[in-house]
Amino acid sequence: MTDLLAVTFNCDFPPGSRVGVLTTQPLDRILDYLAPETGCSVGDFVEVPLGPRKVLGVIWGQGAGDFDAAKLRRVTRVLDAPPMREELRTFLGRTADYTLTPMPAMLRLATRAPGLSDPPSMRKVYKLGDDEPSRMTPARTRVLDILGAMSDQAFTLKELADHAGVTSSVITGLVKLGAVREEASPRDSPYPRLDPARPGVALSDAQVAVADQLRASIRTGTYGTTLLKGVTGSGKTEVYLEAVAECLAKGRQALVLLPEIALTGEFLARVEARFGARPAEWHSGVTLTERRRCWKMVASAEAQFVVGARSALFLPFRDLGLVVVDEEHDTSYKQEEGVLYNARDMTVLRASLCDAQVILASATPSLESWANAEAGKYQRAELGARFGTAVLPEMRAIDMRAENLPGGRWISPTLQKAVEARLDAGEQAMLFLNRRGYAPVTVCRACGYQVGCTHCDARMVEHRFLKRLMCHQCGETRPMPQACPACKAEGKMAAVGPGVERMAEEAAALFPKARLAVLSSDLFGSARALKEAIETIAQGGADIIIGTQLVAKGHNFPLLTLVGVIDADLGLMGSDLRAAERTFQLMRQVAGRAGRADKPGTALMQTHQPDHPVIRAILSGDEEGFWRAEAAERQAAGVPPYGRMAGIILSSPNVQEVFDLGEALARGDAPLRRIGAQVFGPAPAPIARVRGRHRVRLLVKADKGAPLQAALAQWIAQFKPPNTLRLSVDVDPQSFY
Ligand code: ADP
Ligand code: ZN
User: Fold this and answer.
1) How far apart are the CA of 551 and the centre of ligand 2, in A?
2) Regarding the domain delimited by 394-435+498-629, which CATH topology (the fold level of the hierarchy) does it fall under?
3) pTM attached to this predicted model
């Protein structure tokens, strides 16, 4: 009978049958409901009642049947959205298993667009009307000409006004006269089609060889990963766009992940030049309605090409054929809050589930990807030189022990001269310092007191632009104190050490005629503002760029010919297992900003330890040598990528509580010992208090092949932490603070 009904309704579950629904609510189980009058099928997006509310969910399978039948409630309705495909359901499940994340959190990640349960909404668009206006003005003529010439386009009021260069009142005036018609059209409209057959730029021989290799991999129609390595400016983007073209030509969807949303302005323009239209965008800088449009169009395959930040990996693609992870070594691919996943690694997983190809592109790959290529798991593709006449910058160290610098100054005479030479030549110079704010420490010269955050074990950082002290852990700010909070001495508070704002001050004094631009993430209210600033600078709107690591990430500054690294030793001090790798990558990336166009560039690195092996590797450019040495060290230590790690972070307002559980975990490590894993800790985290919560860490180390997740789950399940305590598991941790 049930089967017959299912056939009649053409669905998995006829009305009234028991279904299991995964909701976005933080309940650690699938909930049982009754199928609605329309019936429903696995993967359907639904709305279900939960307590007094209606929440979003997905039909996950048959109901478990362990819930009192009399109390079962009915699915409210099936949403008008393409069902979640099996591939995505499997991907969410596998990511949850890998990262030890509850499924509802995974579903939230996959539905991060507002109004998915709302009926399709409408917006007003403008078309040519039937009547002629009695009086014409130049502005009116422009509007009517555009509408006449582009009759297949649907302009909103703002788009039309922008396009015609008129105020919106000109258009509303024409509507009143009947010369322009106002229509309602669905808001979530498809994206303009991209044309993969349009010719790309003429590629160099080396680029052709790599493009052929990538196209051939797309044609296999199966999973595979290629590590595309090439110095900045060698044409990696140009070449992987050829792979995108092949993928689109096959009728499959393509996704490019970028680490930094400020990159997209330049990137979108390049896609438009190549394919005749822009791709869909998915990142924090797009409006909520655009997000919903993107989500829906991806699901119905009316978005062929998406460029986005890491969470774009969880969009409901109908037929994903290629994912490019650009700047694959970038640490921002690891999400450090909520679901602790690494988008680069999960990309490889998703691609393997949907027969897609992956391209990991970087000038300085992560040791993880390098090791996978060495082991033959990834293909390699390499672009050697920079395209055209652009050559790699010359790299030199400035030995700070030999520079006579007075206290409170950080730009050495040697660097100063080099900057002056660029200014005289009408070129741009960059000063790089990876420290936000004015000074990292504020200290009382009378009593030595350092201003710290009241909620965190962290120093407050002076931000002179904002005229405030700020905690970089919790974001708390407070006014700069006039008197020392401890000894009450007036006017004794002093800045110690440099931040980018202080560099700007020093540069202004040394180079009074130069136009300065400071690029630091906290100085821009929005991603869009930052994007605009970068574009202005690229066009020559500044002579000296002073920036944090924000500037290292692939922006094109064609006029830039000198990069000065203020403190090349900064990253080497940490105890982080990746300190050497990170410094190597960052320094090479920053240096790569110089000399992109037709002028050769120079990178000067101020260092107190010019003989440090990492500094020497950076200067010599012997990358393979560096990777081999680094790989050998990690192998000997049994750490990633040659061993596995997981971090456990316990936090609570109650310090006793975190140590009690930490010690209990350490004692109860039998499930871990069974797989040969070791537990270290508990120990106070390097930042032992954040936002008023005390933090304790444990570290688990296991062999590469060990079934780590299963053991971790068993281990943690032995304990029931108090409600005030938060326990998070970070598999493959990148950050150890
Ligand atoms: P990467 O991604 O490796 O940094 P890009 O693809 O951004 O390199 O190329 C660097 C610059 O060189 C860009 O401005 C790009 O347009 C240009 N370029 C690269 N290859 C070619 C080519 N074959 N023809 C014309 N311009 C090219
Ligand atoms: Zn704080």
Assistant:
1) 26
2) Rossmann fold (3.40.50)
3) 0.83
